[in-house]
Amino acid sequence: MAAPQGGLTASIRRKLQDGKTPEEIIQELVAGGMGQVSAQRFVDRALAENTSLPQPDSQPAAPTSARTEGDALDSFIQTKTVETQAAEAKSGSKTLWYACGLMCLGIGITAFSYSIAGPGQRYTVMWGPVAVGVFLWGKAVFGGLAHARSFSWTSAIVSLAVPAVMAVALRAYVAPTPAVVQSPQASFIQLEKGPDGKYRRVESRPDSNPGVARLLAEFEEAESLTARCDAVDRIARVSSQEAATAVDGLMEHYESETNRVQYCIRNAVRRLDPSVEFEEDAR
């Protein structure tokens, strides 16, 4: 922004004498392209000079050399402000790190949401800040091609590497365990009914009935009511050869479950073995 004739401070003094408030003058300077801090400094300086200058009806005007020195200082400060703002715009550091912060925010919220979600529960994928961050990062890098020498390429690389590492770590954390293909003779983890009537995991046993065992394990590990009922529904669809084992496994948990899960178990047992009767049927 070019300095007005007579220097910027002199122009501000004239506006103050015309009745404008300092806040109005600061807004005009900022709207013209000056930084908020620089505008405030110029207005403060003009106010201080207004206080120290003698009144025109009692004292002669300040010497021309003094006004020239003040005008030169105004021009120097204003030029430096514009140069600093231009240098910041060319380097692109602020935009790059702002974009990095948005991407990290989105990934962090997604990771936190996944970590507190139980088995079978939903979690939030915060893709909005990530998308905006990628767009701003790309825009800053594309604009930096016009002045490649002054652009902060180091900031561009690091600001993208940080969220990329976070995304890889999150992907490794949420990735499901791959299925392991085993031969019929291979050992596996199954459930075995103990003396107390509860099922326990037993390793290195022949694979006699892995389907029902795995489904019962999923039922026991499920935390939410919806997930437990979903597991019961899958158990109810096993083959007729596995029906007796499935009924025994479900009935072991019947008394300790909530009313909702008991309702799901009753429906599943009736599908597996219609001859089984419950006390609720007699009511």
According to DSSP, the number of beta strands is: 2
Low-confidence runs: 1-6, 177-191, 203-209
Kindly report how far apart the N and C termini lie: 89 Å
Supply the number of helical segments: 12
Mean pLDDT: 74
The H-and-E topology, N to C, reads as HHHHHHHEEHHHHH
Rg from Cα: 38 Å
Helix content class = 55-70%
Computed structural class: mainly alpha
General form: elongated
Provide a descriptive summary of the structure in words:
The chain is mostly helical and about 280 residues long. Helices cover about 65% and strands about 5% of the residues. The chain is built from 12 helices and 2 strands; from the N terminus they run αααααααββααααα. Strands 1-2 form a two-stranded antiparallel ribbon. A hairpin with a 5-residue loop joins strand 1 (about 190-195) and strand 2 (about 200-205). Helix 2 (about 20-30) packs across helix 3 (about 35-50). It is elongated. The N and C termini lie far apart (about 90 Å).
Give a quick rundown of the structure:
This protein is mainly alpha-helical. It has twelve helices and two strands; from the N terminus they run H-H-H-H-H-H-H-E-E-H-H-H-H-H.
List the helices and strands and how they pair.
Elements: H1 8-17, H2 22-31, H3 36-52, H4 64-91, H5 93-116, H6 127-144, H7 153-174, E1 188-193, E2 199-205, H8 210-221, H9 225-235, H10 243-254, H11 259-272, H12 279-282
Helix pairs in contact: 1-3, 2-3, 5-6, 5-7, 8-9, 9-11, 10-11
